[in-house]
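pasting input
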Amino acid sequence: MAGNTIGKVFKLTTFGESHSDFVGGVIDGCPAGLTIDLDFINSEIQRRKPTQKDISTSRSEEDKLIFASGIENNISLGTPIAFFVKNENYNKEDYKDLKELFRPSHADFTYNRKFGINASSGGGRASARETLSRVVGGSIAKLFLKHKANISINAQIEKIGKWDYLTQKEEIEKAFEKINREGDSLGGTITCEINNMPVGLGEPVFDKLSADLAKAMISIPSVKAFEFGDGFKGCMEYGSEQLDNWNEDFSTKTNHSGGIQGGISNGMIIFFRVGFKPIPTLNRDVSYISKDGVIQEIENKGRYDKCVLPRSIVIVESMAALTIADHLLRSYTNKI
Amino acid sequence: MAGNTIGKVFKLTTFGESHSDFVGGVIDGCPAGLTIDLDFINSEIQRRKPTQKDISTSRSEEDKLIFASGIENNISLGTPIAFFVKNENYNKEDYKDLKELFRPSHADFTYNRKFGINASSGGGRASARETLSRVVGGSIAKLFLKHKANISINAQIEKIGKWDYLTQKEEIEKAFEKINREGDSLGGTITCEINNMPVGLGEPVFDKLSADLAKAMISIPSVKAFEFGDGFKGCMEYGSEQLDNWNEDFSTKTNHSGGIQGGISNGMIIFFRVGFKPIPTLNRDVSYISKDGVIQEIENKGRYDKCVLPRSIVIVESMAALTIADHLLRSYTNKI
Amino acid sequence: MAGNTIGKVFKLTTFGESHSDFVGGVIDGCPAGLTIDLDFINSEIQRRKPTQKDISTSRSEEDKLIFASGIENNISLGTPIAFFVKNENYNKEDYKDLKELFRPSHADFTYNRKFGINASSGGGRASARETLSRVVGGSIAKLFLKHKANISINAQIEKIGKWDYLTQKEEIEKAFEKINREGDSLGGTITCEINNMPVGLGEPVFDKLSADLAKAMISIPSVKAFEFGDGFKGCMEYGSEQLDNWNEDFSTKTNHSGGIQGGISNGMIIFFRVGFKPIPTLNRDVSYISKDGVIQEIENKGRYDKCVLPRSIVIVESMAALTIADHLLRSYTNKI
Amino acid sequence: MAGNTIGKVFKLTTFGESHSDFVGGVIDGCPAGLTIDLDFINSEIQRRKPTQKDISTSRSEEDKLIFASGIENNISLGTPIAFFVKNENYNKEDYKDLKELFRPSHADFTYNRKFGINASSGGGRASARETLSRVVGGSIAKLFLKHKANISINAQIEKIGKWDYLTQKEEIEKAFEKINREGDSLGGTITCEINNMPVGLGEPVFDKLSADLAKAMISIPSVKAFEFGDGFKGCMEYGSEQLDNWNEDFSTKTNHSGGIQGGISNGMIIFFRVGFKPIPTLNRDVSYISKDGVIQEIENKGRYDKCVLPRSIVIVESMAALTIADHLLRSYTNKI
């Protein structure tokens, strides 16, 4: 049973493999009457593109977004909003030799065993390319959240590798020199804040707002870790140190809980952190395994991201926006 | 739109508030023909009970489990397995005075704003009591996994507070003395391993095995953080340090990835870590806020867990079992 | 993948086999704050019971309904409303001899092949007993529809066998004498009207209000046919004869469409018809087949309904109420 | 909450309004490794086109189908299969004048009230054009059913208006002359048989195979009625007349039940009937109502189908194929 849809009311389904003719998606459940600001959507797509030469992909992508349905005169119709982008800029031949080999720490092997077949590019859907559809979906979710409740979502890089992004720029520059020189890669952490949250979003028990944010984040390629509020660090403290005491307007003096109590938003800023592993595509000799179980050293010449953090900021925001939009709509049916 | 069901094929729905007459659940999707070992289920329920006086609840619970349907002669019929437990041992009067007050760092306020109403106990579904149903569901999922693929799931406490559970017993004892004396509480971390995993469980993109595990874990009361494989720590390393190189049998020499590649199990041990916050119910004067916004100090005399870690081990395992059982069944439809 | 839940927002899951210890259900998605009128629910349950000796079951049922959760002081909490009824009045031994035999035109054989196992009663979930849970769910849906939009739902028997229920009472009496004498059974048709419908319920394309009503009705035991508006008869006419012309208040002069256009309610009375087959349990010698394929004549002495129509009126209304309640809640998210 | 997806494992989502730039769909859940016979798919699309001048649309359609993803070298990858067709052949201006008017017995009014907005063509998704995506989805479902279990699905016209399609050709010809002359339209009935059905498809209670077929059929534009087996007619007979007695190979001597018992296939031919209303678009003066409630006579000059039956045969088969494919996959998880 496939799993290419996220959300229960505001739903995004994505399609497209790394090297299929198109990638795209369908948003089903965007309310009618929303103004669809195409400039904003395209600016969000730009944020996902490689801009900083050193720390991102060298593969050029042409992302001409086409909306197929669901919008007329820039207004949502309440019907499915389908969109797609042509995958113009690749050559299936590039990957031909690698089709019979599984890269280490990639999804080639797991896809092969799961489906009994591999797309020509190996990883199929396990592609950075797929995240384009998340950004389109997320940007429309953002427009809805802005319009309806003035909710805003802001992510930023916290760390590249083990270095603080804001205060250790020199160390990070040196680390990039090193990975460029040695064909290595870097991960890091991204934090995200959601402002102007209404109280009451999220469902008790399984569909907690925090649980759905966790799923949305861990579903992003390369993500290995999620925590909200004080996270793992807060788990090491005493209860008395983690208590968020009341102000008389029902806000709290501290926000150790990260804006979510019992799985439901409490009106404070939602805060969470996401960990990205260093990508496993290295520009050096790497040991592949063939379908017959023969291990061989191969020099990797593929184009790739050396650090996905910069272009992942907007992806984190997009997945957060999709989750919050879904729960905002879900909350309409809570009470009589 | 409510969210009291988890799973898409092996589905668990739970019901019951902290002080409703019953708590229970319905498992829909357990295949027919499974031997339901009631002794095992009851032993799992026992694991959820307070056993270590000092570090758990003093509230006594009678958990006489009744199966209402779906099982005959200890064999599953393929029909919904409903079960429930009577809530015998509480007094609604105990909570009466608190009904108009919101505790700090609890779900009373968020439930009130969400539903416009509160159950007599304040938090409604945000109750440790609800996790009993997770354990029953999880124990049946474990029986299915054992029977079908000999998969086993083992969680253990890693840390209480900031202390290592295995090597710092003395420090932990002192910390418990402290919290008993001062009416405080402690959190910590639980790690979990899943052995004998088949390759190929988990779906690309949104329903990654890792993403669904994350959601299942973060849905547990008090959980604030989730990471798999090397987690946040691995995100600080270089790609070359995180590469899991091949053995000729398609296993890997290391397991930085924690048994999941591209959201799909790769046959290695699945490993993840869960962070529990210290519970916010303190045996000391605490500031409540009334529905009118008046803050008042109240002495808390309620019975409560001072540290949920010991009884949460089986809950972590149960949620993992539910997630893996669901994905094992989902995998049946992957290929022709 | 099991299918014991109906509805997407207002959801009912039912459980219980014909001879399990309990039958019951869980309503997940009833908004908080609804007054739960227990007298009304019990009066609906009464309508499902055999009252007319001649045309219904002779099996006595004690339906003491217990609400397990989700309601406090007769107000819904927004949490799952679980309920159950004990199955007191049967003897598993009665069915023992029949366990190895499949009745003709029953679900014994299909259940056996599907699940590889049979409940002691043969048909398992294919039991009139299961419909009790539909009536409880439906009665709460009715309370919601009444409170929220004053929507009312009224079904009635149109035909017993081939005779008009209102004008051919004598013929029907004779037919009942015949089936009592000969151990035979009768089917018929039930029609249903839904009044005070808001405009705009139902979703384009697959989740049309008409399509969901069709599914809900055909899911009732013994139902073989569904039509709305002028149904099959209208399909034989010319388009000019079926046109519903406008009044100036956007109502229509006629209602051939039965209150639904393009799958969406148009504010007129919703009208549909449901066909019930005569039940296949006959009080006469009937040919069973054993699991080994041996056919044998057996005298049927079981207690059974000779005509399910009278007690099915409330079941039709209940399934309609569940469907409309679900779509009413779904409609809250249609537009900005 | 939108409803543009059908199926739970083999899922089709469709998109596109009558006059959007594209119509198309996404199939999520087609197993990997299926040979996708594009010639077959295109031949199915041809069957949906107007071929008999007199009894179908005069609007010419260019249906150049593009597969965007999920297929490589004509083999399904197990990933979402997205497809679309450009809507080339229309002029939004044609409909401009009608945008402020609601046609009688159409979905213009219900869409307007539901969404607070109308697509330029009035009915939006309520368009024959949308059914193209159903046929593409259905043709892939047919390939799966053929490959996996040699299941075949055959629908045929039974009646046009009140006349038997096979034996009353002359009467039907005259009726078509009449509707062409008078700008009127005709409905009728289509029957469908499914051969080589395995035993055991369909779920007890709500997701009965019959219930899901009913929903699938009633979701087709213009459909007003559904019955299976002996349908309404069988509901008028005695139980003894409707009994399907056993053969020793577990087939039955008769098939009054239409191949489904207790919602589960019994291995006999599945038989059902679908009623199509005469379409409400007439080539004559028709009363429209404006958004302000003013009724006015307008001469209708639009291109339209006078009878949708011929092109609906393949749509009925497609929706049946989608339903059976979904339940075939669902059945994989029934038992240990």
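fyi The longest strand of chain C covers residues 152-160.
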